[in-house]
Amino acid sequence: xxxxxxxxxxxxxxxxxxxxxxxxxxxxxxxxxxxxxxxxxxxxxxxxxxxxxxxxxxxxxxxxxxxxxxxxxxxxxxxxxxxxxxxxxxxxxxxxxxxxxxxxxxxxxxxxxxxxxxxxxxxxxxxxxxxxxxxxxxxxxxxxxxxxxxxxxxxxxxxxxxxxxxxxxxxxxxxxxxxxxxxxxxxxxxxxxxxxxxxxxxxxxxxxxxxxxxxxxxxxxxxxxxxxxxxxxxxxxxxxxxxxxxxxxxxxxxxxxxxxxxxxxxxxxxxxxxxxxxxxxxxxxxxxxxxxxxxxxxxxxxxxxxxxxxxxxxxxxxxxxxxxxxxxxxxxxxxxxxxxxxxxxxxxxxxxxxxxxxxxxxxxxxxxxxxxxxxxxxxxxxxxxxxxxxxxxxxxxxxxxxxxxxx
Length: 407
What we know:
The protein is built from 16 helices and no strands. It has 407 residues and is mainly alpha-helical. The protein has a single domain, classed as Up-down Bundle (Growth Hormone, Chain: A). Helix 4 packs antiparallel against helix 5.
């Protein structure tokens, strides 16, 4: 891999690790404040809004400045979000601030990788990226579980008791740990070399940027390979964000696990994703990316099946299979999407379009999930319908792809 690639992976892993641990700690803060269960998915909802609202602007921003420097700046914004929680700001407001940083971080990260890695290595590079992203998500959940464990909290508070530091919440020490992790991510970003890519100067008027963004969005959707891969990744990431909360609730309602143990259970998905990403990165070439589409149908069916599992050991195995199938599906199609986007647009703009659509899907699915939870819909039928809907959608994409693309 080119110089700087593994440093990008390390920097984004550390930042995403803190993002996902912050989610678990924030859920614990909501519980500490006595707020209802449907507030938990709203944390992810307000985090994701920035990806959608700022999409026309973050792509040109990522192309206008050195991307590694922009990544470091955005880690600073996430640090402000954690500081807001330390000072007692409502977790939803703090998560919205963190979302501002994440929205600009994504096109800088993916755009930089597309600039420094050629098409021949792009699937392998995405194997590294998606493995890192998902491992950070799941290991971040585990870290969050550790940070909300009462014994760990007591130990951390004991370490600070001699310093006479005023704490607004027992979870404040957990937030201080996350501040240190975000600081490390910022330092790693500063060490990433500039790719040397240059793009024509872009207009800065908001209306011009929005028109340019919608033109880019239409162009990518109308491209045969770009539109197909964008549809799949849009479904996948909306599903993945929702499954974070579905698995936590299912673990509590069906397996009767507390929050910290439910968070640990998600590591099975991380292991599966790593295996699936390695398989895809090694054996799926970029021009064969659409051959993995049937994995999407299998993914949906597995989600429906696991809803009825009541044994923790079987649950671990099934979650690992879900992760593996997801890794095999998303890695080649994400690489194809980035390749088509880079050819049709620019690195930053293509990732901004991708992020807009994927996170619009996240908002829709999380909104539906929060609505159903607030209506006291049981988690088992909810998971059954969700899995069957995903399988049906992927089946329709396969059928459409067979008609639209040459064999």
